[in-house]
Design a protein that fits this description.
alpha+beta; 13 helices; 52% helix
Length: 330
């Protein structure tokens, strides 16, 4: 029975993304801990580089830690946070696969749109996209509603167009996809300046389409799909049933999205580094991106998260983001 249990545990850990070495080391850890790492490694038949890689994988996943200051004795830790991270990574891999398949089908469907053009929907392609988008920004009078995600438009004036629109007093509401926060250069060059200039920003794990709604006049819908590797294509949708559906889609997403204030938030008593960590986390940035932005190791990132969760009484990262928002930290 113990052998069957260990076998099922190993299979479950591998499904969550742990390698065979890390899974074997974790099983030995559960049998022997607290114990020196060398003793646990011997039971798992690991040594040298294989042991170092397996142990680091468990630490990064939040499943083990050193029991003392010398770091020799190791113990398993409560797996709630670690398993959540592993499950999220696995879900992200599945989502990537889904996107690839969907992108292939959309590429097929878009080829059927090449000859489609009527009084309600206009097809714009290639070099004509840049001037059309620039005109859209400059023509806005009251409000702009936008879904923003990669791939980004090659229009060189895009960032300045957005800032100029805000300077004219036009309300700008943008729902960013999580990926938008993971492109450091784009974030610092485009996203953060707009938020600091008064843009109302919110974040979702993903947005359904790249969309720009100009007042109640018309909408620009990008048909570019990064995974399909096709030419840039955009629809200009005039007021009609489709336009109304796009407006309703944006408003629904806006209600569901998490407010995002970038680095402009100033919650009292919270160090700047923790403040930056929280809004990256709220935006859905990956552990790798957060650690890189903060200039810390993933191990240090996990410790910081545990301290913040304890401070706010949060059991997981989702609750941490919600509690931080309620405290006015986001």
């Amino acid at each position: 029975m113990a052998g069957m249990t260990n076998e099922r545990l190993g299979a479950a850990l591998r499904l969550l993304g742990l390698g065979p070495g890390a899974a074997g080391l974790y099983r030995a850890l559960l049998d022997l801990a607290p114990a020196p790492l060398t003793e646990v490694a011997a039971a798992a038949a690991l040594d040298g580089p294989g042991l170092a890689a397996a142990y680091e994988e468990l630490v990064d996943a939040g499943l083990t830690s050193a029991a003392g200051a010398d770091g020799d004795v190791v113990v398993p830790v409560a797996p709630t946070a670690g398993l959540e991270v592993l499950a999220r990574h696995r879900a992200a891999e599945l989502e990537t696969s889904r996107t690839l398949v969907t992108g292939a089908f959309e590429s097929f469907r878009r080829r059927r749109l090449a000859a489609y053009n009527d009084q309600f929907v206009e097809l714009v392609t290639g070099d004509a996209i840049g001037p059309r988008m620039h005109h859209a920004w400059t023509s806005a009078r009251h409000q702009i509603r936008q879904f923003e995600s990669p791939p980004y438009s090659p229009v060189p004036t895009a960032a300045q167009d957005a800032l100029d629109t805000l300077a004219r007093g036009v309300t700008q509401r943008v729902v960013y996809a999580r990926e938008s926060l993971e492109h450091a250069d784009h974030f610092k060059r485009t996203v953060e300046p707009c938020i600091n200039a008064g843009e109302q920003a919110r974040v979702l794990p993903s947005v359904p389409v790249k969309l720009l709604i100009i007042d109640d006049a018309y909408a620009l819908v990008s048909l570019s799909i990064r995974e399909a590797d096709v030419l840039s294509t955009m629809l200009v949708v005039q007021p009609c049933g489709l336009f109304s559906a796009l407006v309703a889609l944006f408003e629904q997403a806006w209600q569901q999205a998490l407010p995002f204030h970038g680095s402009t938030a100033r919650p009292g008593g919270l160090p700047p580094a923790d403040r930056r960590l929280l809004w990256l986390l709220a935006g859905g940035a990956s552990d790798e991106v957060i650690a890189r932005e903060l200039g810390v190791s993933r191990r240090t990132l996990f410790r910081r998260l545990q301290v913040l969760m304890a401070r706010l009484g949060a059991a997981n990262r989702f609750q941490l983001a919600l509690q931080a928002q309620r405290q006015g930290w986001l």
